[in-house]
Amino acid sequence: MLKDASFIFAILLEIGVPIIIASFLAKRFRVSWKIFFIGLILFLISLIRIPLNSIVSEFLRFNFMGEKLLILSILFPSFTAALFEEGFRTLGIGLIVRQKNFYKGLMYGIGHGGGGESMIFVGFSLLANYVAYKLLGTLPMLAPLKESFDSMIWYMPLIGAGERMMTIVIQLAFSVLVMAAFLRKKYYLIFIAFLMHLAIDFFTVYVASKTSILWSELTVLFFAAISVLIIMFFYRDYKKYEKSDTGSGAA
Questions:
Q1: Are 82 and 197 in contact (CB under 8 A)?
Q2: Do residues 107 and 22 lie in contact, with contact meaning Cβ atoms separated by under 8 Å?
Q3: How many helices (H) and strands (E) does the chain have?
Q4: Which of 60, 72, 84, 135 is a Cys-bridge partner for 49, taking CB atoms 3.0 to 4.6 Å apart?
């Protein structure tokens, strides 16, 4: 019973929170839903890196061992995630989103990290697996899925959902940084977003491999706290730079 409630609540958070935040931005600040879907689509396109990660992972497995293998196996996918995601984020915010402002940065971020990552990549995937487990769990072909769900501690889905919420905050900060780069014409902020993305992806996985899931989640929490500070900092003075927006159009 507790496990079912945990799964349902986690799914509702992962799918519902991005929709709630995007709806608030659209209604309160009149930000177009187009920007949400731009962020969502470009996140999904950024996943073209996954086959490359698989190829390099095989290469590393046959050519390295021990600590070198561990570090490189975490570092390379962290690098490609930062490169592709921040690259497409820069493309989306820099070339597609017009009449730039702080709230459009937030909307892009919730589309990227909420719509693409939390809703589709995690939430809907978890929903599909949960439904398959509940309705078709007796099928032999789903035996591994059933075993995985049955052996899972009841609160694990909640931990995953909590991490998604922290990751959404982090993705919002990345988008605010990239938006500020164009508003302020300080393009090194894009590089800062890239480095921060690389560091978060690397250290959360590395800490998990060396310690426990608890310390890994605390690492995510640390970066989420930094992300809140970044969002607050750029919120304070965004109006000053909003006056110097470039481009035209409704998006």
A1: yes
A2: yes
A3: 11, 0
A4: 84
Number of domains present in the structure of the chain: 1
- Rounded to whole angstroms, the Cα distance separating 88 from 91 reads 5
118 found inside a domain: yes
Domain-located, residue 251: no
Q: What is the pLDDT, as a whole number, of residue 242?
A: 55
For residues 70 and 110, give the distance between their C-alpha atoms in angstroms, rounded to a whole number.
32
- The answer as to whether 209 is a domain residue is yes
Q: How far is CA 56 from CA 50, 69, 73, 80, in A?
A: 10, 11, 8, 11
Question: pTM to 2 decimals?
Answer: 0.89
Tokens read off for 165: 């919420």
Nearest to 169 by CA among 212, 112, 87, 104: 112
The string of pLDDT tens digits covering residues 25-48 is: 999 999 999 999 999 999 999 999
Question: pLDDT-derived band of residue 241, with 50, 70 and 90 as boundaries?
Answer: low
